[in-house]
Amino acid sequence: MDDREGGVFHEPDAAERLVLLMSPGRDRELLAEWFESATDYAVEPVSDANDLPPEYDVCLLDDRTFGAYRGAIVEHACEADPVYLPHLLLTTRDDEGVWNADGVDDVVSLPVGRDELHRRVENHLRTRRASLRLAEREQRLRLFRRAIEAAAQGITIADANADDAPVIYANDAFSRITGYDTDEVVGRNCRFLQGRNTDEATVETLRDAIERGDPVSVEILNYRKDGTPFWNHLDIVPIHDDAGRITHYLGFQQDVTQRKRHELRLSVLNRVLRHNFRNKMTVIRGYAERIETGEATREDAERIRRAADELLQIGTQMYEFDTLVSDEKAEGESFDLVEVAESEVETLREHAVRADVVTDLPERAPVAGHPSLRAALRGFFSLFEDTAEVDLDVTVRERDGDVRLTVTDRGTTLSRHGIEIVAHDAETPLDHLDRLELWLLRWAVEQSSGEFDVETADEHPSVTLHLNVAE
């Protein structure tokens, strides 16, 4: 392909500069007059290397100037590297030392015809033009590489023609986002970022677009090297060759975890607040009207008090939510998960009429998390305090730096539908939870770089929290 057609190189508008570094005299004058009349070169005669222009395209020398200024000529050629800067020696000498001299790219034996001299000069200029094109291409490639490396987005290139489309390049931002070094990424398909809660429908969307050769943009749950989940805004663009065949896939990755979490949290809060405030205020107004008409009973007052207490509870949870969001980057704290679990189980046994709680706990399980995590755990266990009969299995396991708290409800407090709403972001205006405890627990776990998981396929639904071991 012609580089000029691709926009890589443009011929300069200015004429190429030919310097005659020769002794003053009739020979130099005749050469200058002929080149000026017969070519498009900008001809500049000089007698001293100190008078050489900072930039020129070809230089003709005679024996005297070459002998006197060889060092300066070699220096000019080195400074121009990797661009070719030709120097031609016009001489009557024919010894081997002339042909092997440093600083000389060609030796023109005198006498020489004008057409031959022009042809020799033009041949060297063609080589120079090619070297300029290559140098400009290399410069642009270096610029592109620096720009890619400086980008805040992760950028990958995958080979579409190799088995399983492996990554052949990943920039520094990709390593920062995922935690994987470049040598751990190259040679692998990027699906290694997927994990247990990656949405299969989103994966299918990616797969279908790639099979069709279409660009695709999705937001997908991926996992860093340390197991931390993050939301990845992923764009994949196919790259075609001149024949229209896909040769590579260009991928852009952006961590949008905080935005996704904020959007979900605000949406959930909006629905819970609207639903609860509307319902509770309807209750309060209804029984207040009975008081006004003199029809109220003690039970009516109790119902008003309960509705007000529930609104106060929502207000408290709103404060906890505000603390969670405003202190997103708060320094984490460590605590013993077993100690918290034992304390909450003991509270349940004290409050419930019948509490059948089976625990399987190690001696200790120190975890690290956001300051809101401990309070969120207490809020979660408080869901069971309103139940007359508590039937729970509480298990804590530690493996490979991951502490797992699993709570299985053998009663009726945790509904399959309810925990799936929280686990899979399935809240809608018509299908949502009335309380925030499960949501606050999930958000506190995620803010602690952990993961909230549920199991509804078994006879009894369960919630599992994956937390990080405290160092």
Please give a handful of descriptors for the protein shown.
471 residues, alpha/beta, Rossmann fold, Beta-Lactamase, Heat Shock Protein 90, 17 strands, rod-shaped, disordered N terminus
Quick structural gist:
The protein has 471 residues and is of the alpha/beta class. The protein has 13 helices and 17 strands.
How would you sum up the global shape?
rod-shaped
What is the name of the CATH architecture of the largest domain?
A: 2-Layer Sandwich
Number of helices: 13
Name the helicity range: 40-55%
Q: Give unreliable regions as ranges.
A: 1-12, 426-432
* Content-based structural category: alpha/beta
Radius of gyration: 39 Å
Q: Helix-strand pattern, N to C?
A: EHEEHEHEHEEHHHEEEHHEHEEHEEHHEE
Spatial gap, N to C terminus: 59 Å
Topology record:
Layout: E1 17-21, H1 26-38, E2 42-46, E3 58-61, H2 63-80, E4 87-91, H3 96-99, E5 106-109, H4 114-150, E6 154-159, E7 167-170, H5 172-178, H6 182-185, H7 200-212, E8 216-223, E9 229-240, E10 246-255, H8 257-292, H9 298-326, E11 333-336, H10 337-351, E12 354-360, E13 366-369, H11 373-382, E14 389-399, E15 402-409, H12 416-423, H13 437-447, E16 451-455, E17 462-469
Parallel strand pairs: 1-2, 1-3, 3-4, 4-5, 12-14
Antiparallel strand pairs: 6-7, 6-10, 8-9, 9-10, 11-13, 13-17, 14-15, 15-17, 16-17
Helix pairs in contact: 8-9, 9-13, 10-11, 11-13
